[in-house]
Amino acid sequence: MKKNLSIISFIVLLLSATLLGCSKEVPVTNKQNAIATTNIDLKGTTGSARYDPLKLGSISGVLNPVPIKAAIKAYNDHFISEEVIMNENGSFVIQNLPPDPYHLLIRYVPVNYSGYLVFEVYKIKVEAGNDTILGVISLPE
Fold first, then answer.
1. What's the CATH code, domain 31-138?
2. Where are the beta strands (DSSP E) in the chain?
3. So where are the chain's domains?
4. What confidence tens digit (pLDDT) does each residue in 59-81 have?
5. What is the structure's pLDDT at 54?
6. Cα separations (Å) of 92 from 59, 83, 132?
7. 21, 66, 98, 108: which has the fewest Cβ within 10 Å?
8. Selection from 138, 109, 103 nearest residue 123 by Cα
């Protein structure tokens, strides 16, 4: 009886480990939560390991006025990009995005301000093989 219990325990443990190892992503489903908390770490499917590079797009733009620093992510219900940092001119590019509509989450520190502010751009359409150019994004100070 003890041997059967050990085998059953082993099978349950093996199945649990298999199921946990198969977890693919944790999409952002509550956009308000992602907006309201400025120091969260958006987690989920990042990168493009499961996508053909020729079927990916990108988003680019320029932040104005240029903040002291800014971190930008594109996200939707299915995908969250890697975080990118703007360059010294306020320009940024988020690459390797599967075609889909996205929202842009911009966390930034404006000049003469001591904390982070959050700004979002909604409904950005990304198409395979194309760069979606947003142009100048006017940030509130």
1. 2.60.40.1120
2. 57-64, 69-75, 84-85, 91-97, 100-109, 117-126, 131-138
3. 31-138
4. 999 999 999 999 999 999 999 99
5. 73
6. 8, 11, 12
7. 21
8. 103
